[in-house]
């Protein structure tokens, strides 16, 4: 006999609604002004909550950025995985995964670069940071899967995927690439990953 799922209580619904308002407010303000030019007070005001409530959901502006960008990254990764599903050439398949990730990272360049720095240097014990690291692992797994499909051994595919992920992070985050458009960054990543795969 199956047990029917319990409905979510009012308190949980209210918490979820507040979280959605916070993410929407932070996302809108970060997109308009950039993370550096937005205060937590402005986010709280736009979400129509108190600052104390805001800090129950995220302890800092960096965590708010992670919260906002994680959902965008997750969507981009899903799009990339779907695009790579039927691609037989390993380099083309890797790039099908990475291109949407680059595109989402470049929507607001300073925010994207700050997000990448937070992933690399942020507190791994913080929940939003853990989620970002999990997305990085999912990206590497997706790349490893397409490399294994092409006949590369599992351990080698995992190592190559990790290197490809590092290449993409550096290409998106490095100051020297800050003003480059998406196509140039994708071409740069493709060239480096191509060398990695012996292409």
The first-to-last residue Cα distance is: 56 Å
User: How much helix, percentage-wise, in residues?
Assistant: over 70%
Superfamily at the CATH H level of the largest domain?
A: Tetracycline Repressor, domain 2
Helix-strand string = HHHHHHHHH
Helix run count: 9
What is the alpha-carbon Rg in Å?
A: 19 Å
- Oligomeric state: single chain
What name does CATH use for the topology of the largest domain?
Tetracycline Repressor, domain 2
- Helix/strand structural class: mainly alpha
Describe this structure in words.
The chain is mainly alpha-helical and about 200 residues long. It folds into two domains: about 10-55, Arc Repressor Mutant, subunit A (Orthogonal Bundle); about 60-195, Orthogonal Bundle (Tetracycline Repressor, domain 2). Helix content is about 75%, strand content about 0%. The protein contains nine helices and no strands. It has helices at about 10-35, 40-45, 50-55, 60-85, 90-105, 110-120, 125-150, 155-175, 180-195. Helix 4 crosses helix 6 and helix 4 runs parallel beside helix 7. The longest helix is centred in the first third of the chain and has 24 residues, at about 10-35. The mean pLDDT is about 90.
């Amino acid at each position: 006999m199956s047990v029917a799922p319990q409905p979510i209580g009012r308190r949980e619904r209210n918490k979820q609604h507040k979280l959605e308002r916070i993410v929407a407010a932070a996302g809108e303000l970060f997109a308009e002004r950039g993370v550096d030019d937005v205060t937590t007070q402005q986010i709280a005001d736009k979400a129509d909550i108190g600052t104390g409530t805001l800090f129950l959901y995220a302890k800092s502006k960096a965590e708010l950025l992670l919260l906002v960008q994680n959902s965008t990254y997750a969507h981009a990764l899903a799009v990339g995985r779907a695009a790579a599903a039927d691609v037989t050439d390993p380099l083309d398949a890797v790039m099908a995964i990475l291109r949407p990730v680059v595109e989402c990272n470049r929507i607001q360049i300073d925010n994207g670069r700050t997000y990448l720095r937070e992933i690399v240097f942020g507190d791994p014990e913080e929940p939003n940071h853990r989620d970002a690291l999990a997305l990085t692992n999912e990206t590497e797994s997706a790349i490893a899967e397409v490399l294994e499909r092409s006949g590369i051994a599992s351990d080698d595919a995992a190592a190559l995927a990790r290197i490809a992920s590092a290449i993409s992070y550096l290409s998106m985050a490095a100051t020297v690439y800050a003003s480059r458009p998406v196509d140039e960054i994708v071409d740069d990543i493709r060239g480096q990953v191509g060398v990695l795969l012996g292409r």
